[in-house]
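Progress against Task 2.4 (sequence-to-structure conversion) is shown through the following example record, which the project officer requested during the mid-term review.
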Amino acid sequence: MTSEKGEFYGHLARRILFVAAATGVYGAVLAVWRSPLMAAYVAAKLPLVFVGATLAVSVFCWMAGLAAGAELRYREVLAAVVFAMSVAGAILLALAPVVLLFVFSAAPDSAPPETMRLAHSAMMLAHIGVMGSAGTVGVALLYRRLRRHVPAECRLGMMLALWLEAFAVVGCQLGWIMRPLVGSPNISVEFLRADALESNFLESLSTQIIPHLLNGGVVK
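Structure tokens generated for the chain above:
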């Protein structure tokens, strides 16, 4: 391996480790309201979701870049998507204390089951919003970075919109498979659900979480 390649992959590895550490801290914040054990589980799982989604979509992002006329090599695309995730990780790390305050404000120690379920749904949507916003900011900063390195005729906005959509779809589904992440108040603490591969995130969001917030549906 040449010195240039060694430096590139070393820098890439450091960014990935930062993403893993930052999302691990945020993962603990996600679930500490439920129990310390749940916080430890999610601190281990959330980095797998973020890093796994980043690596999983990198090939798609490279192909989308070719279609958009970006003329980027795969390793350049990989570096770009890892950069976007490192920005998202930095934002999550910075927001962790604020979100921790919100978590303990939204989840009382003792409350009727319906109140706890409502708090769970609210926290779930709040965390989705925070993580989605962090990822969007990362991709927005990536736009400015890539604009200097792609041909002027490259449809960069369309390409990054596809990248963001791919991150959202793959990340949410990986999060669904790795659930529980927030920790439901009416289900025992466990590392993975027995039905981890059943259903999907969008189905749960549209049939359980949002209906519960709007008209008293039940979060399972």
